[in-house]
Amino acid sequence: MGLFQKLALFLGIRKKEVNVLVIGLNNSGKSTVINHFKNDEDKASDIVPTVGFSIERFQNQNLAFTAFDMSGHGKYRDLWEHYYKDCHGIIFVVDSSDRLRLVVVKDELDILLQHPDVCNRKIPVLFFANKMDCKDALSSVKIAAGLGMDKIMDKPWHISASNALTGEGLNEGVEWLTQQIREYIVNNKF
Amino acid sequence: MSSFKKDKKEEEDGSCLFTGIEKTTVLQECRTFNETPVNPKKCIRIMTSILYLLNQGEQLSSTEATEAFFAMTKLFQSQDVILRRMVYLGIKELSGVADDVIIVTSSLTKDMTGKEDLYRAAAIRALCSITDATMLQAIERYMKQAIVDRNSAVSSAALVSSLHMTKMANDVVKRYVNEAQEAINSDNIMVQYHALGVLYHIRKTDKLAVNKLVAKLTKSSLRSPYAACMLIRMAAKLLEEEENGSDLPFFDFIESCLRHKSEVVIYEAAHAIVNLKCTTNSELAHAISCLQSFCNSPKATLRFAAVRTLNQVAISHLAAVKLCNMDLENLITDSNRSIATLAITTLLKTGSESSVDRLMKQIATFVSEISDEFKVVVVQAIRALSLKFPRKHSVLMTFLSMMLRDEGGLEYKASIADTIITIIEDNPDAKEIGLAHLCEFIEDCEHTSLAVRILHLLGKEGPRTKQPSKYIRFIYNRVILENPTVRAAAISAMAQFGATCPDLLENILVLLARCQMDSDDEVRDRATYYSNILSYLDPSLYNSYIIESPQVSIPSLERSLKEYCDGCTDEPFDLKSVPIAVVPTNEEVTRAQQKSEGMIMSTGPTKKVKVSREENYAQKLTLIPGIAQAGSLFRSSEVVELTESETEYVVRCIKHTFSRCIVLQFDCLNTLSDQLLENVRVQLEPSEGYKILKEIPCEKLPYNETGTTYIVLQYPENFFASVATFGAVLKFIVKDCDPDTGLPDTDEGYDDEYILEDLEINLGDQIQRVSKVNWQASWEELSENCVEMEETYSLASMSTLEEAVKNIIQFLGLQPAERSDKIPEGKTTHTLLLAGIFRGGADILVRAKLALADGVTMQLTVRSTHPDVAELVTASVG
Ligand SMILES: Nc1nc2c(ncn2[C@@H]2O[C@H](COP(=O)(O)OP(=O)(O)OP(=O)(O)O)[C@@H](O)[C@H]2O)c(=O)[nH]1
Ligand SMILES: [Mg+2]
User: Which family does the UniProt entry place this protein in (chain B) (predicted)?
Assistant: First the structure.
């Protein structure tokens, strides 16, 4: 066993599986985002609205991700909280062309951040300002402002503009998340 | 009585792995499911414990179930095949209790369409258990694909799940018909069977379509023996429904199955043929000989099936079954006691009076070894025997009382008591002995419900025996020794003696006085109530408040009282406003009995309070505007067909009588797929005196749906005009439409009409049956302040007394009392006693003296509290 692997084992990283929760309103592109990261042979050819949730797995930089792809439909949003407790990171997908529902997004985000299972943890949150290719898409800066993200002090967060259909912007975001989770794990001695 | 007695040893061994498991601990352990990474081994063990607990009948609250359920959803992370399949089972078990189970929908659809074959079938079953009607649409595409999947397990799972889902969304499943059609051609025997099940279910309300399906499939030969069995059942059902005898091709098909290579199919065919109503002797012979050869099979299941079927039809096909007597004799000593029991009881049914003693002795040798279910079969055979050979009642009664003293469950004991009661009722000679056996039995009876029934019977029959006083001791013993329910029943029984036997009254009053100190409210109340009434020494009071039970329908009474309490009125509650209870007709009673006599059929848990047909209708009718003023529903008639069967439109009428008006409910069915009917109504030509108060049309009547239109008529003031006949025409607007979509081609429709058969309102529609325990007492009571009419008729068209009795009862709609509808054999004169109430509340009592001589002569005496009613009855018979 090489030194690096030993070190990794000691840090509890190599074998570590990490759970991320993927949330956001319906039709924002969550399932499409996840689909992008999957191996070619596992990729779904057509994506239908999620009912409840679906568990997907993918790899990034030696870390095995288990993603809980939640449904964003109104009547299922109450169920997100069942999965807050044991996730290591959150991916929050926003449809940047859906200006009308940006306020709804803000409501949901606030509820998330105030939830007892989330508010006291330094859990990293990655935002995708998705559908950047759409004509009337808001920029990531505008979205960050619109959601009042500057007020999130106690958690690392990051926002990437993305296009889940082509994959643009996705890798950048997930690399950030991977980095954060590594740190999080080391600090919390998982 | 659905489960056979379990092998005790097996029961003890089976549970040791999980004994001592507790619900709370297991539920706590469910937290393990939240750990990442998932530990499959540990989780499988916990899942098993949960499933074990649930299967032991442990109940989870909805919060507990939901918590466990959501913890379980985390296990979808694991790729462990066994764990995943445990999760499916868990989902199915909890789907009924936990909230938000819909959350696993996407996870399950992913598994059911995924690559892992081991997941797919089980995922489909789990998916269908969590899906509600609103989500069905979303999974429709996957279900259709799964039905035609190459993998037979997947296909079967999808078909069976579809069948389950028809309960909540029949319409959606109907759309799977093409896929099911494709699956029926499958080479796999299970898939073919399940596909046939779905196809039949989709069509079963449409007789024509079922006919076509059966006709088509009987021509092709089905590979699957199970499917063939099902097809036989379908064909047999169609034959049964066919009015006049056998539809040849279907019968030929069933008969051809007697030569099938699979034993299951041969048995099914034989079973179907012997159970058909109209079969000729030659048709029967072949089927019976198949069963006969099964009786000699080395396979116990076949012997069992054959002898059980022979047992069931022994009475109806006596001669044919008798031919198997030799084979049945051989089975008496079969090492399988179930087979032996069935063989003996069959022989009892077919045998002669002389063989009874020998066979009873034979049974006695092993009756203690067989399970309750089979003991019940024996009891039923004894019941049949005692009706057939009344002279054997003492042997049989002794045997029954011996069985009564043995160990046994409620159902078994109840069937013995029932049989004794039947024998008592049927055979006056057996009455005293039977009552004595029952008295002895309640001395040591652990079943409260049974003790109560027997006490009631003693109260009813005891006072009319030669020496009523000897029953008092048995009854009073119950007051001293039993629980409150039985004590209360005993008090009521004693009161019956007090009311009927003047020389016992004084003693009864003393006993009742003692009971007024009882610790239980109900017992004290009853004792006080009866003491009070008995102390008036007024026979007519006894009659209405002790001997006869209240005639109102209990559910209606409850509803009326609730309404009365909710409303704020100073008027006293009027008991007359409560509808009276409907007495089941003799046919209904026998029909119910026949159903339960087909032995070893699980009847499922017995339904609690049976709501009567009237109650059901009453609730529906309240939807008609203005009907509330009409008061309470008095009587609903049988269904009357106003069209021939299999016509374009089918119209059935139910007549609901209120005290001053009658509501005609017309249920109309449109059988034309290219027509949409609108504004459907019935046009009546009311005869003199009747007035139409309201007509409520049915707005829309699409293909294959039943719609209802109502007419409210006011009864004529004059009672004599109330018996009448009306001409009737169905009127509607037709819109032609596309048979596939059911959408009309144009907005324009045209008027059309359809002549219906004449509608009659007769005397029976206006009378409600009332059952009287002591008819004679009521008759005398009415002699003072009422009208009596008498008339003599000659009923030339009747050739027997039985026929006359049946027709009179049906025509007048009255209830026979004191078993006067049964005519002792060989008699040429008979007196029929009837009772009822006319709408509005007038009592009617009728005495019909019949004599047989060249037709039947009848002297009819009617007493009623309303003069016109009495006259109406005599007038309408003429
Ligand atoms: N133009 C554009 N369309 C996108 C993008 N991402 C997703 N979509 C489309 O948006 C639609 C919704 O995508 P999903 O991935 O199903 O959305 P979701 O968030 O999973 O929705 P729910 O499961 O219902 O909560 C699909 O038709 C995608 O093809 C994007 O970046 N650009
Ligand atoms: Mg989705």
Answer: Belongs to the COPG family.
